[in-house]
Amino acid sequence: MDKHFLHIKDLSLEEIHELISLAKDLKTKFQNKEDFKHFHNKSLAMIFAKPSARTRISFETGFTWMGGHALFLGPNDIGIGKREAIKDIARVVSRYNDMIMARLFDHAHIIELAKHSDSPVVNGLTDYNHPCQVMADILTINEHRDSLDNLHVCYVGDGNNVVHSWLQLTLRLPMKFTCVCPEGFSPDEDTVKLAQENTNSEIVITHDPIGGVKGADVIYTDVWTSMGQKEEAEEREKLFADFQVNNDMITRTGKETLFMHCLPAERGRETTDEVMEADYSIVFDQAENRLHAQNAIMVALTS
Prior knowledge:
It is a single chain. By secondary structure, the protein is of the alpha/beta class. It folds into 2 domains: 135 residues, Rossmann fold; 154 residues, 3-Layer(aba) Sandwich (Rossmann fold). The chain is 40% helix and 15% strand. The chain has 11 helices and 9 strands. The strands form 2 sheets. A 5-stranded parallel sheet has the order 7-6-5-8-9, with helices on one face. Strands 2-1-3-4 form a 4-stranded parallel sheet, with helices on both faces. It is globular. The model has no long low-confidence stretch (mean pLDDT 96).
């Protein structure tokens, strides 16, 4: 792997499969309460411009289990791009800590942080992408399908940062990826173009929630209104009304389909309570696997 983990496309297909294998191994060790002190006497600085329950819990729990100390730094501790130059923050924090995880708004900030950091930087999320989430996703699908061959993932909702990381994954892992979104909410054009130019995968961007989900092995959704967009919530609820993932939509795929959501979920909006609790829902396996996928990423960066 590269020194940092910033984008899915930075990985080769071989590295993706190696991370999945390592994550499975670490998951077994974690569940069996085995000692694994890879980060003994090491520290992780966790910089949060955007708060998140799952990201903090999974990184802090994982790094602590692996023998290290994880330090939470919220917006009041470090004002990325506000009180101090990012390159200065990178140089200082990397002299104190052996690794940095940052969950930020502006994608340019994670790039600059990594450029000036002497320690590995892990992208915990930006407004552009969410590579840790998609590594957890593909680990979860692999556990439930046994194989990643002939995979059709259909994402329903806003063409957001999770979609961008899935599009980047299609550059390495051959699949069909469909994004079903309202008009005006398509993913980044350059990222779509890059993915569509990759002849190993089939990329479909559609505004048809009925036809778009046909044949999907996985239907994936996220909240309609992300952090920083709350003033748009009422308008988005109207525009996204036909894109709710409910049991009727699941049955339209014509096959046994898994349901995924990166959480937190607003039940009754982007999906229903019935779907969240269904036998085909693997949402909480997916959430658990954030821990194991991220552990694998951090170990691989330092091995």
